[in-house]
Amino acid sequence: MAPLSLFCQRNAQSPDESSMPKSLNLVGTSTYQRIKRDIIFGDLAPGSKLKLDNLRERYEASMSTLRETLNRLASEGFVDALDQRGFFVTPVSREDLHEIANLRVLLECHALRLSIANGDTDWEGNLVAAHHKLHLMEQKMLEGDNSQIEDWKRYDWEFHLALIEACGSNNLLSLHAVLYDKYLRYQMLVLTHRGEDAVEEHRKVFKAALARDVETAADTLKVHIEKGLEHSLAAFTD
Amino acid sequence: MAPLSLFCQRNAQSPDESSMPKSLNLVGTSTYQRIKRDIIFGDLAPGSKLKLDNLRERYEASMSTLRETLNRLASEGFVDALDQRGFFVTPVSREDLHEIANLRVLLECHALRLSIANGDTDWEGNLVAAHHKLHLMEQKMLEGDNSQIEDWKRYDWEFHLALIEACGSNNLLSLHAVLYDKYLRYQMLVLTHRGEDAVEEHRKVFKAALARDVETAADTLKVHIEKGLEHSLAAFTD
DNA sequence: GAAATAAAAATATCAGATGTTATTGCATCC
DNA sequence: GGATGCAATAACATCTGATATTTTTATTTC
Question: Domain limits of chain A?
């Protein structure tokens, strides 16, 4: 199974054989993608009840489709399914945020090491392109233009994916995609971003990866995620 | 979301708040558990088409329920959902087996280290009990009694879970539970087991964990999984 | 104010109808 | 004979609506 994430081009219901792992793709308009987006971006609040009748109106879908979607999201951990009591947006907590960040460090750094070891010229090319696009967007953000947060986050996702894409494990990329999205929900909840520090960390990981400096790249990525965690935790109240 | 696995007591559709991560629990008789069991134990062959009408007869469930179940399993990676072409049991491959085993090493060893660091007296007690039960069953298997493979695998699961259960991360336990089940499917496909070596490795991990010898425990666990991988790969043909 | 009970709401499951897409079999053509 | 095009069939995806069960809410009673 190829990795799925919100920025995914393909329809979640119709995975094709393309190898590109996907996250946060707001292009998709399936019920699955729309609900997942709304959970990640906080339009559906953590812990809130997902009444089927309400969802029916809101997403203009039948109960069958909605239940299939909610079962999928429950399996991924964005929705809690309680027998005979319906569906709820998975609650958030500091502990959970901690766990997600730690797992992201574990998996993403591991994948980065593999990717740097395996990456070919195409990998480098994609990485350069992804960093360039992210960097342009980051400049805009630093100038105070906060109108394109979703685009910004898509570029962030595409950069982090480009880093690890040559790791050689689709299973690893799949797990990472889900973790990224869970982490992203927390980032969206606190809605503060770290500015120049994060930009510089991106640049440093990028440079080290291109230079095939595994240790520097992995260490910097670890710091990058952990600083993001601290930043989120500081702004986060249960 | 608490970890789910085949040996799970609770109904997959009705997760409660109990913290016990679950795998291969054949007690459950929900459609979800029955189909998942049949995939893992090879009664539904890798790659085979899951025609809804056939499943309807076989599991005596309505199309709605089946589609919800298949969506869940698709999300976990046991089923492939192809748009307008229906559902298929996820195919197997040597590469996939490799990936699964490597991820299990990464996550399970990491969790074991945390667990040894955090584990209290209850953890030790559970671990002793789990190893004892597994060991008894292993003796039976060594004597040639192959009539209780599912029970044996449940005890194996419970032992590996007991090792890592004090890791302090529900997210980690969830990811591990799915990986264990995927790995188990490959073990069931080749249907050969390793005998005394594996028994001794279990004993060694167990002793090291109780002695809080993190390095020995993690190294032995790594060897245990990797030897299992080699053994499965040798018997596995695409 | 708490406990028991009745009413309402919501869920889970099912059956059946409809439109769409994929697959299959057959005839045709080169 | 093999490839191509077309019709018939099968299968999927979605929706509506019905029923039984369970949970939640409101009301009554003590």
Answer: 94-235
From the candidates A75, A94, A100, which should be mutated to test the interface with B, based on the most B CB atoms within 10 A?
A75
Q: Tokens 């584990």 map to which residue?
A: B119
Q: What is the pLDDT of residue B57?
A: 94
CA A103 to CA B167: how far, in whole Å? 12
Q: A27, A43 in Cβ contact below 8 A?
A: no
Which residue in chain A has the smallest CA separation from B72? Answer: A72
- Write the pLDDT tens digit of every residue in A48-89: 999 999 999 999 999 999 999 999 999 999 999 999 999 999
Cβ neighbours of residue A85 closer than 8 Å, sequence gap 6 or more: none
The CATH code for residues B94-235 is 1.20.120.530
Backbone angles phi, psi at A105, to 5 degrees: -60, -50
Q: Choose from A14, A35, A107, A169 for mutation: most chain B CBs within 10 A.
A: A169
Please enumerate in sequence order all residues whose Cβ is within 8 A of that of A115, keeping only pairs 6 or more positions apart, or say none: A123, A163, A164, A165, A166, A167, A168, A209
Helix axes A214-235, A170-190, angle to 10 degrees: 30
For A109-158, how does the pLDDT look when each residue is reduced to its tens digit (9 = 90+)? 999 999 999 999 999 999 999 999 999 999 999 898 888 899 999 999 99
Residue B161 has pLDDT above 70, yes or no: yes
Residue whose C-alpha is closest to residue B169's, from A214, A106, A142 = A106
Give CA separation, A58 vs A30, A48, A194, B145, in Å.
13, 15, 34, 57
Q: Do A75 and B80 touch (CB under 8 A)?
A: no
User: Residue B1: what pLDDT?
Assistant: 45
B19 in A contact zone (CB under 8 Å): no
Classify each residue of A143-169 as buried b or exposed e, where b means 16 or more C-beta atoms within 10 Å of its C-beta: eeeeeebbebbbbbbbbbbbbbbbbbb
Nearest of A158, A169, A177, A164 to residue A116 by alpha carbon: A164
What DSSP designation does A166 have? G
Q: Are B24 and B181 in contact (CB under 8 A)?
A: yes
